[in-house]
Amino acid sequence: METLFLYLNGDRGLKVLEALSKLNIYNIFVFKNISISSEKVVSKLKEFKNNKSIHFKTVKNINSKEHLLYVKKINPDISIVAGFSQIFNDEIINAPKFGTINLHAGPLPKYRGGSPLNWQIINGEKIIGLSIIQMNKGIDTGEVLCQSSFELKISESILDVHQKTNLFFSQMVLDVLNKIKNKSIIFLKQDESKATYWHQRSDLDGKISWKNMTALQAHNFIRALSKPYNGSYTFYLNHKLRIFSSKLTTKFFHGSPGRVVKIKDEKLLVICADKGLYIEEYKFEDYSGDLINGMHLI
Predict the structure, then answer these.
(1) 174-196 residue pLDDT tens
(2) Which of 24, 43, 173, 266 is deepest in the core (most CB within 10 A)?
(3) pTM
(4) DSSP string spanning 90-146?
(5) Residue 63 has pLDDT above 70, yes or no
(6) In sequence order, which residues have a C-beta less than 8 Å from that of residue 184 and are 6 or more positions away?
(7) CA distances from 167 to 27, 50, 287 (A)
């Protein structure tokens, strides 16, 4: 039975674990960050507690001498990184027999770096790309072992994209492992001349610019940062307003960017750089009122 190390943080790793466990041919050591307190993750992991081929560990520092010694002791065939938040050093990457593979939620080399799913939606991509690479010391610079993609519908949010991504990765991992076993895996070097990097997004990057964004750009921005994230935001006076859902309209409502408009028998909309955008779900953080006609968002 082959031995695998699986480093996970959330749903992506859990979906991979589920797919691997069904095959019943792997001895799996599952590592979660010691800081993970998500009830959903903890509850899901408990479903595998009676599976004797799955072993659960927590790790505080992935690059500690203690963890390196443990990896060398178990001597796994391969390590799989599925959304783990820590950066691996060379020794940990290369300790397994085949090294370490990383599930990167973006097409490479175009979307190296952080928050690749969010960036793809924000940038208006119609196709979401995914990659599995063999890790090295660079930032997403390793050789590509597997790539896949799926269509992004204009109505889909980041939650929909995460769910599809997790399902795709669970199958992509099985494909990579099977090809490694059959010695048919192909190592594809990335074209450095086409490489672009994107920074990890934070809540500070989530402010909507009504005067600079078209309705389509604002819609992409809103759905890229909606639940399970905090949501994009704007301000009415000094009150922060979180927006979670929007909808494009074929009608042309024009005016001052940021102006809230209520047309008879229509939903609320906010004027963007080119035209209006329907606002479907929102929440003020420190204001008890609702969006009403005539408000101006900044």
Answers:
(1) 999 999 999 999 999 999 999 99
(2) 173
(3) 0.93
(4) HHHHHSSSS-EEEEESS-TTTTEES-HHHHHHHTT-SEEEEEEEE--SSSS-SPEEE
(5) yes
(6) none
(7) 22, 24, 39
